[in-house]
Write a structure and sequence with these properties.
The chain is an alpha+beta fold and 99 residues long. Helices cover 27% and strands 14% of the residues. It contains 3 helices and 4 strands, in the order E-H-H-E-H-E-E. A hairpin with an 8-residue loop joins strand 3 (68-72) and strand 4. Helix 2 packs parallel to helix 3. The longest helix is centred in the N-terminal third of the chain and has 14 residues, at 24-37.
Length: 99
């Protein structure tokens, strides 16, 4: 299980085009790579106490699990609903919705 309290990012480090800035997506991707190496079959991403944070991080992190996402940065989805395609999945096929 991965507990993610916030979608954090070092904005200044990213602006400087640093290759090693702090990022929730990068940290979760590293954990997923470790899990894959260890033969882990499934992952639970616990966002229950996640207070939010960087919208860009939330979108990029979602892309670790699904290849396309629709998101809104407003309480009213009609205001700013966007679709995005992200980088290749780090944990493909894991986003399953109950039928």
């Amino acid at each position: 299980m991965i507990e993610l309290p916030t979608f954090y990012q070092d904005f200044e480090g990213r602006r400087r085009n640093g290759n090693d800035y702090t990022s929730a997506t990068r940290d979760v991707a590293r954990l997923l790579a470790e899990f894959h190496t260890k033969g882990v079959d499934g992952v639970v991403l616990d966002l229950r106490n996640n207070g939010g944070g960087s919208l860009d991080e939330a979108v990029q992190l979602t892309g670790l699990f699904i290849d396309q996402a629709r998101w809104s940065s407003s309480a009213n989805p009609a205001v700013a609903c966007r679709s995005t395609t992200t980088a290749p999945q780090a944990w493909p096929g894991m986003a399953r919705w109950p039928s």
